[in-house]
Amino acid sequence: MITESDMDEIFQALAHETRRAILDLLRNEPGLPVGKLASHFDVSRIAIIQHLRVLEQADLIISEKDGRSRRLYINAVPIQRIYDRWTDLFSGHFASRLTSIKQAAEGAARTGGNHEQ
């Protein structure tokens, strides 16, 4: 179960454009070294490291020592937990509503095409 405090950290981490861009890069290139990641941005390496700390604190990235460098990986589990929190509660309701809408649309399509006179 995800706590309110966990969600606050995750949303705070995701609120910044640079941190979202970091996550996009790590999704596309797992294991990216910190130096190579920093080269994608027009800010100091120190600024990138501060962004990485926020992401690590929210558990959105995992870093792994590789000799003298650190390799970074995205951890999508916290985002999935937030997704599950609301979809678990509401998905059944909306799935049933969508099924009703689909059935109504299909029924209208079957009977609507035969009204020519």
Question: What would you note in describing this structure?
Answer:
The protein is mostly helical and 117 residues long. It has a domain of 73 residues: Orthogonal Bundle (Arc Repressor Mutant, subunit A). 66% of the residues lie in helices and 12% in strands. It contains 5 helices and 3 strands, in the order ααβααββα. A 3-stranded antiparallel β-sheet has the order 1-3-2. The radius of gyration is 22 Å and the shape is elongated. It starts with a helix and ends in a 5-residue tail after the last helix. 15% of the residues are buried. The model has no long low-confidence stretch (mean pLDDT 89).
Task: Write a brief structural summary.
With 117 residues, the chain is mainly α. It has helices at residues 4-14, 17-28, 34-38, 45-57, 77-112, and strands at 32-33, 61-66, 69-74. It has a three-stranded antiparallel sheet with strand order 1-3-2.
Which strand order do you get reading across the main beta sheet?
1-3-2
The level of helicity is 55-70%
Q: Do you know the CATH topology of the domain at 4-76?
A: Arc Repressor Mutant, subunit A
Q: What is the general shape?
A: elongated
Helix-strand makeup class: mainly alpha
Evaluate the radius of gyration.
Answer: 22 Å
CATH class of the domain at 4-76: Mainly Alpha
Q: Which strand-content bin applies to the residues?
A: 5-15%
> Strand tally, please?
3
Low-confidence segments, given as residue ranges, are none
- Give me the strand/helix succession: HHEHHEEH
CATH superfamily of the domain at 4-76: Winged helix-like DNA-binding domain superfamily/Winged helix DNA-binding domain
Overall mean pLDDT stands at 89
